[in-house]
Design a protein that fits this description.
Length: 276
């Protein structure tokens, strides 16, 4: 589950001559920035879930790593009962929009509405329930390099009455970013399932942050694509969405100017585990 999301497709050109080799930057043409909508709303079990955050940014030019906030947008979420929740950019020019009175409800349908530069972006999704992390086990096994490796499994009960999909993440304090993975209950319907984690950076005395989140089939497919792009590197798929992966948010004003990002809502469970 070691992943690293690539913000843009890396391109370079090597020009070879008889006597030397030179790396040259390609003069890429500028394109109109796309809106990136990070609208993953998570409700931690045991909390009221009233404070939620949506982040808006813009794609930048090829050679820049700077994240450009999308400011001045109007961001709202409505539920199927007609309640409207406003997300406000409380810190000016941050691109971070916060709601402090959100009402999360399992199986409630919610609609995201973002108005930015005279265009309207929308998406609809249902808030999903997540199982609890019931147990954590630890085992030390020889690794391919000859050194012992600590392996962690954390277990949860799948609901056998429906098809389920899960996003798992583990934050190791010895690593800069969390590791992510997605799994399905296709071959484990109604059984006890587990997330697996093994890393040479897992040492006795550190505390791992284990996370379990139920997700929809659409978000499962979306994350699968992001993780496939990531390959085997370590990193967070939520830092900036990959430019080649489209989510479930549409531009109702101009379909050709589609945004990046995803709108999803669910419960999640988390457990801190002290490595022995």
């Amino acid at each position: 589950m070691k992943t690293k999301i690539i913000n843009l497709i890396v391109a370079s050109l090597l020009i070879f001559t008889i006597s030397c080799e030179k790396v040259v930057d390609i003069p890429l043409s500028e394109q109109e920035p796309k809106l990136v909508i990070d609208a993953i709303l998570k409700w931690q079990k045991g909390t009221n879930g009233t404070t939620q955050t949506i982040k808006l940014s813009l794609t930048n030019n090829f050679y820049s790593n700077e994240i450009v906030p999308a400011v001045g947008a109007t961001v709202k979420i409505s539920n199927s009962e007609g309640l409207l929740f406003d997300f406000v950019e409380t810190v000016a020019n941050s691109g971070i929009y916060i709601c402090t009175n959100f009402l999360p409800e399992i199986q409630q349908e919610y609609t995201l509405i973002v108005q930015y530069k005279n265009e309207i972006y929308t998406a609809t999704n249902t808030l999903l329930a997540s199982p609890v992390i019931s147990n954590v086990t630890q085992e030390t096994v020889p690794s391919f390099g000859g050194e012992d490796e600590i392996q962690i499994k954390y277990y949860f009960q799948d609901n056998g009455l429906e098809s389920n999909y899960y996003l798992l993440s583990i934050k190791n304090p010895n690593l800069k970013t969390a590791d992510f993975g997605v799994i399905t209950d296709e071959f484990f319907q109604g059984n006890m399932m587990f997330g697996f984690y093994g890393s040479s950076e897992t040492k006795p005395g550190i505390t791992l942050d284990l996370n379990l989140q139920a997700i929809s089939l659409g978000y499962y497919n979306y994350m699968n694509k992001l993780l496939s792009i990531a390959g085997s590197g370590s990193g967070s798929p939520f830092s900036t969405p990959a430019a080649t992966v489209r989510g479930n948010i549409t531009n109702s004003s101009n379909s050709e100017n589609f945004p990046l990002g995803y709108f999803h809502l669910s419960e999640f469970d988390t457990k801190n585990y002290l490595v022995q």
